[in-house]
Amino acid sequence: MNKKFKIIIIILMTLLVLSGCDYINDILNESNDNSSTFETNSDATKIDNDELTVVDKELWYDKSDDYSVVTMYLTVSEGNRGDNTNHTWQEVNSYSIFYYDDLGIDRYAVEGLLQVGDENGPVAGMLGFDALAPNARVNVRGNTTSTSPQKSFKIELDQGKGMWREQRTIILNKHVWDPTRIRNKLTYDLLRDIPGAISARTQFVHLYVKDDTSSNTTGGQFVDYGLFTNVEQFNGRYLRNHAFDNNGSFYKAEMFEFYRYEDTLKLSSDPTYDQKAFEDIIEIKGNADHTKFLKMLDDVNNTLLPINTVFTKYFDEENYFTWLAFQILIGNADTTSRNFFIYSPLNSEKWYFISWDNDGAWDVDRMTEPIEAFGHEYGISNYWGVVLHQRVLKQPEYRKKLDDKINELREILTEEMLKERIDAYSKVVKPFIYSMPDIAYAREAEDTLNETLNKMPKLIEVNYKMYTESLKRPMPFFLGTPEIIEKGKVSFRWDTSYDFNEEKIYYKLQISDSYLFDKIIFESDNLLLPEIDVPITLAKGQYFYRVVATNQSGYSQAAFDYYVDKDYIKNYGIISFFVDGDDIWLDQ
User: What is the pLDDT of residues 35-75, one digit of tens each?
Assistant: First the structure.
């Protein structure tokens, strides 16, 4: 046989072997999964007018049991310094994200043996049953939640040591700020059945932990850690399991309002590229080539380009309006600059929104508090500070599409359906919430929790009314920094408001030395321009100012800015500033 022909045969055989190797595929599809084969699936991709259209994979959820509880057993032990697992379980659970940020170090971790079973112990045939050595790495996850005594955990199974439900990274969320412990799961489970939405698989988990890391152990016994909720980790394997493109662009919003951020968001090939600074705005979860992403931002921020052209080119209409309508109806206010992912397949210019962290939704206070208590954080006004949403929603035809989608979802998210679901969830979680260890950290008494659960199904219509109210009011705006322009005269400037009905807008300025505005130092009403030079001399100290916009119909709106008082309560529409001689600076 010809030597050259032999070499070709050997190469072909090698490629065939590698293509069937699950271990190699595991490596390619974990972590950020920046380099994996492009996979398609008829459940998840469609060709529509020569454009790749992404829909979630329905079959991925076929075996989901929304109300079951999986029991897990985790034995933790000290590992080695090389992978930062040479710590005790007490150390791992003692520090918040702020401790690690201050020191500039990675979170402490331990080795773990994860086993799955039932309430009697690990079960044969399930993950980790026959394992003798650790099969995972464990650390605390979350940002502000890491300050809580009850922690959430990230468990990363080692390569070649199995997976649980096609996942190697297992996220166990405690949902410490949510008294119901169901808001996040409820939201993902609802999204699963909504056309145009992209969801994630969830599972209630009862966790037991045995600590073998120190002499202060519990005698080799497993300790009950209570109820957690598993939500799929959003990484390359998530894309693969949902039959999306592992080579695609995938980002998690951290403080991202679709502005260009030219000083920070750069190509990775740029000599001044700073990945950490980049990821402070938006975290890279997929392809590290930012060319397509930055081109989209360039066009979104180019006001010379019609937004209709930009939107049609870069965004999937069904996905965009479904995501936005759903967030408005469940009152998920903290979704303007964070708590969402955007994803784009490699061979498409379209971007898709995916929900993340829904604990802030389903706020029953919206049923009893006046609308002013929520500042701008409702309806369309909540999203007005995001350049993409603002440009889109200024167009009457797009507001009509949003309105149509909201009414479509109201037909799906009925009070009757929600009550049935929430009642079923409550039967699962309440026995855990009101027994040890979770009862020690329960945020509501059981009677109060029952009231909360009973109110939740009514929130869709409450949020719908707040949405319709937002259409009548002027849109929120940002306040500027006051400036002393001469002795005895201070200049105040702010952005213009916007009215959907093109009504004339009047502004009212007030200045006080208290955020309660119980004493007004200066006031001016019926201002037509977003500026005023105030004849006033301010002594050294702290001051506050606010501006309220009112349209001809008498509907008012405060500014985006807010002041957080000593009780951590937001006081909307207010800026705090300090005066010292001729200098003025904002309270940051």
Answer: 333 333 334 444 443 466 899 998 899 878 999 999 999 99
Q: What is the pTM (predicted TM-score) of this model?
A: 0.90
Please state which CATH number belongs to domain 483-586.
2.60.40.10
Phi-psi region of 441 (alpha: psi -120 to 50; beta: other; left: phi over 0): alpha
360-363 long-range CB contacts below 8 Å, 24 or more apart?
360/183, 360/332, 360/333, 360/334, 361/183, 361/187, 361/327, 361/330, 361/331, 361/332, 362/180, 362/183, 362/186, 362/187, 362/330, 362/331, 362/456, 362/459, 363/331, 363/333, 363/459
Give me the mean pLDDT over the 308-335 stretch. 98
Structure tokens, 51: 């454009």
CA distance 478 to 64: 45
- Token readout for 349 is 């210019």
- Sequence length of the chain is 588
- Identify whether the C-beta of residue 335 lies closer than 8 Å to the C-beta of residue 324: no
Question: Does 437 sit behind a cis peptide bond, omega within 30 degrees of 0 on the bond before it?
Answer: yes
Question: 47: which strand partners?
Answer: 52
Please list the residue range(s) of the chain that carry CATH number 2.60.40.10. Answer: 483-586
Q: What is the DSSP letter of 167?
A: B
Is-contact 458 554, C-beta < 8 A? no
Beta-sheet strands, E only, within 455-539: 483-486, 489-493, 505-512, 520-527, 531-534
Two tokens, residue 110: 């331990």
Q: Which amino acid is at 535?
A: P
